[in-house]
Design brief:
globular; Recoverin, domain 1; 2 domains; binds calcium ion; two-stranded antiparallel sheet; mainly alpha; 8 helices; 2 strands
Length: 169
């Protein structure tokens, strides 16, 4: 069972993915997310978003109605502890898409554009970025991002830096 903390954490991501705000994730939400990324000139992130939908649907939509609820997402998240390689795989795909200039690290600006496009509004990420930059070198390395991503999706520790990988909630 997901803890109350995990539910709160995942609910924030769920709301960001539920673009039309009807309380369900459907293909249309992911198409809207992909359009938002494509509209900012980042086709790789658009492709990542479109790729998430069939995976999420196959893993979570137990009643096969083409809609995914928060509870269904939480059941998937519950099982992620047993699938570390799947979590690392999504981290790698995400990292490569966020690293727009392909220099092998996520800059402050690349991170801000991730969060702003993800949430569909301007967000001040200056306060949260240093919490994520574990070695304090001013960038998120692939190793740092993978650790943060794994903490977010598989972890249940409110004090883990990865709690903030999608920004503050
Ligand atoms: Ca929706
Ligand atoms: Ca970069
Ligand atoms: Ca770093």
């Amino acid at each position: 069972m997901a803890s109350g903390f995990q539910r709160r954490k995942i609910a924030g991501v769920f709301d960001a993915m539920d673009v039309d705000g009807d309380g369900f994730l459907q293909e249309a939400d992911f198409i809207a997310l992909a359009k938002r990324w494509a509209g900012t000139g980042r086709p790789r992130m658009a492709a990542v978003m479109l790729g998430w939908w069939p995976v999420l649907l196959a893993a979570s939509d137990l009643d096969r109605d083409g809609k995914v609820t928060l509870d269904e997402v939480l059941r998937v998240v519950d099982g992620l502890g047993e699938m570390p390689e799947a979590v690392v795989g999504t981290a790698t795909a995400m990292f490569e898409a966020v690293d727009e200039d392909g220099d092998g690290s996520i800059s402050v600006g690349e991170y801000r554009r991730l969060i702003e496009t993800w949430s569909g509004r301007p967000v001040d990420t200056d306060e949260v970025f240093p919490l994520l930059d574990l070695d304090g070198d001013g960038h998120l390395s692939a190793e740092e991002f993978t650790r943060l991503w794994t903490e977010f999706w598989s972890g249940d520790d409110p004090d883990a830096p990865g709690t903030w990988v999608f920004g503050r909630f």
